[in-house]
Amino acid sequence: MSTTYAGLQSVIWNDGKLDLLDQRLLPEEIVYLPLTTSEDVWEAIRHLKVRGAPAIGISAAYGVVLGSKDEQTIEGWLEQVDKQAEYLATSRPTAVNLFWALDRMKAAAAAIAGKGMSLEDSKAALLTEAIAIQSEDEETNRMIGEHALSLFKNDMGVLTHCNAGGLATAKYGTALAPFYLALERGITLRVYADETRPVLQGARLTAFELQQAGVDVTLICDNMAGMVMSKGWVDAVIVGTDRVAANGDVANKIGTYSVAVLAKAHGIPFYVACPLSTIDLNTPTGAEIPIEERSAEEVTEGFGKRTAPQGVKVFNPAFDVTPNEYVTAIITEKGIVQAPFEENLRKLFE
Ligand SMILES: CSC[C@H]1O[C@H](OP(=O)(O)O)[C@H](O)[C@@H]1O
């Protein structure tokens, strides 16, 4: 992907603070919040000011830096890094990138402390690790875009759910990366974006990102996906993910499972795009993936407009699990992985 793609960056490390795009305000307002503490980062992740598995991991990595910057000894700094990582790990439960990034920061701090550098140099080295997590994600997404684009042909219709774009990552996105690449190479793809209730990441973020970039995008309500597929307008589905279990079961935004079942019923390939940092070989199957449940208000009065009676019972899982038998392929920076997933996912890490 050339550098002409100028999508909004979700997080920017800026002279000792983290400038974070408040994604709750998109598409109406573009506001960057200056975060200066790990508590700021925790709150931003919990309340979806920043969201999307890779972007959450990147933000948490910078949160560890912010939370340990005032320590006065190496021992105190190392202890604080661990403490901050533990604290930030409580912000949201499903996206494994959060825990992957925090583990990487803890390991980096331990390795740095063993080098006998000054405290100042050690803190600088840990910041370099967080910056590396962000820059690596950008490069990873470019590679995911290349592999994903090899699956699409000119004038194909592709449906996506939620937002797995530049706003969910360091840049370019995972599921949306091929759309930006296609545009640069003169390949026309028609994208159908599910609005993705209740937080509307598809309507507010994916439709916004793709429209800004000049990609042909049509917004549909989640309950229209089946009809759009039945009309033959969809040749493939591609989504992001928050955690892939060792057997290839996929946790992603609520509604993804329904899309996968519809795709299978219509003989449409269902692709999942993700970096290796989203594949969790320590979680055997989707049954073991913790599924975040969020507030009733997200459903009954999203964006300030009450649309359900006071006190009504609400079930609001933020994710669901798509069993691997509905997954055609998992597209990573190392290539396209097909069944048998257990065996082929492990090979990615050999
Ligand atoms: C590339 S990860 C994007 C992933 O994250 C979203 O969840 P949320 O907006 O709640 O953080 C959704 O599951 C996307 O597929």
UniProtKB/TrEMBL annotation:
The record marks 162 as: Transition state stabilizer. Its EC number is 5.3.1.23. One of its GO terms (molecular function) is S-methyl-5-thioribose-1-phosphate isomerase activity. Substrate binds at residues 51-53, 92, 201, 252-253. Pathway: Amino-acid biosynthesis; L-methionine biosynthesis via salvage pathway; L-methionine from S-methyl-5-thio-alpha-D-ribose 1-phosphate: step 1/6. It catalyses: 5-(methylsulfanyl)-alpha-D-ribose 1-phosphate = 5-(methylsulfanyl)-D-ribulose 1-phosphate. It is an enzyme of class 5 (isomerase). Keywords: Amino-acid biosynthesis, Isomerase, Methionine biosynthesis. The active site is at 242 (proton donor). Pfam families: IF-2B (PF01008). Coiled coil: none annotated. One of its GO terms (biological process) is L-methionine salvage from methylthioadenosine. Catalyzes the interconversion of methylthioribose-1-phosphate (MTR-1-P) into methylthioribulose-1-phosphate (MTRu-1-P). Belongs to the EIF-2B alpha/beta/delta subunits family. MtnA subfamily. This is Methylthioribose-1-phosphate isomerase. It comes from Paenibacillus arenilitoris.
